[in-house]
Specification:
single chain; 105 residues; alpha+beta; Pnp Oxidase, Chain A; seven-stranded antiparallel β-sheet; disordered C terminus
């Protein structure tokens, strides 16, 4: 299981929003902007889910999710992508990928 690095935590802490991508039971993709993102521990990130009916339904049917965070204000990097599974609203067992500050998101 991947661990969140300090640089990743900084991006998460200063991000204003993230995008959550998932698919429904027919395999149709859905992307939903989320107004919050936080890290809970070195292996778990979470976002608030306020009245996102499709997000909740898709994650109940298929626990796989991808989270994308773009933060141009972060000091060390500006793009993170996590892929994992959902457990109680938190992204568990995530593997984080970080692109350098000089790369386009």
């Amino acid at each position: 299981m991947a661990k969140l690095k300090a640089e990743m935590k900084e991006i998460i802490e200063t991000a204003q929003f993230c995008n959550a991508a998932m698919v429904d039971r027919q395999g149709l993709p859905n992307v939903s902007a989320k107004g919050s993102i936080m890290w809970l521990n070195d292996e778990t990130i979470a976002f608030g889910d306020w009245d996102s009916i499709h997000t909740r339904q898709n994650l109940q049917e298929n626990h796989k999710i991808a989270i994308s965070i773009v933060n141009p204000q972060a000091a060390t990097a500006r793009f993170l992508q996590f892929k994992g599974t959902v457990d109680g609203g938190a992204l568990q067992g995530s593997s984080g990928q970080m692109q350098g500050k000089d790369q386009k998101a």
